Amino acid sequence: MAPISRLDHVVIAVRNLGEAAATYRKFGFALTPRGIHEGKGTGNHCIMFARTYIELLGVVDATGAEGRLAQRVKARGEGAIAIAYGADDADKTCAALRAAGIEAENPKDLSRPLDLDGTRELVRFRNVMMPKLNLPETMQFVCTHLTPELTRARHEWQLHPSGATGVAKIIIAHDKPQDVAAEFKTLFNKLDNAMIDVRTRREIENEAGAEALKDAPARGIVGLGIRVNELDAVGAMLSMGRIPYREAGHRLIVPASGAHGVFLEFAED
Length: 269
Description:
The chain is of the alpha/beta class. The protein folds into 2 domains: about 150 residues, Roll (2,3-Dihydroxybiphenyl 1,2-Dioxygenase, domain 1), CATH 3.10.180.10; about 110 residues, 2,3-Dihydroxybiphenyl 1,2-Dioxygenase, domain 1. Helices cover about 25% and strands about 35% of the residues. The chain has 7 helices and 14 strands. The strands form 2 sheets. It has an 8-stranded mixed sheet with strand order 2-3-4-1-5-8-7-6, sandwiched between helices. The mean pLDDT is about 95.
């Protein structure tokens, strides 16, 4: 049995967290209040769905930015920089990863404060990092939510004006897709809530259009597929926000240049 079975979230690095939040609200997403990673120098807004989410991550204190994610944000610039897989038990998953031949670090406890109606709560995680995986420009780790009731503490966080319901796929560009696919196969047979789509950059351009990949990295995560209830609602939100997008079959594509380094592909379930 493969060590991993589901996607938890995708991390998008942004230069200015406030500006990125404003942009993604124009796409028709509801965002969580700003969260601060104390002692790390980073902050976030999350786009919550029932089983997955997107994390917009930015450096909010340049002098205090520490840790691998903060360093990656500063070095990489904007774009999707991390895939977080989900697990119910970090220690068991760590052991399973090692048994499969994957170098996994010991689980590490992390937390961030959350203010709810004047009460300060602590959202807690337990992460397993996998630093030796070969996917370019991308961190991969396993995230266990120790306080899941706080991660999605407000139902309205999942009520997106665009009708978005989840991350459907992660689109990855690579010179040799078969090499990355082989590594993914060691991690999981098939994710039960999303797919990983690895192709050459030219193949992705042929389908999504060359303009979609402008400002996306040469390799690594270049796009995200988003499930929505109705494409018309998404198109209305994008038009209202004066967001450039392209219709491609039964999809609407916002280029990476307009979405902080990763193109968004909206499609109905």
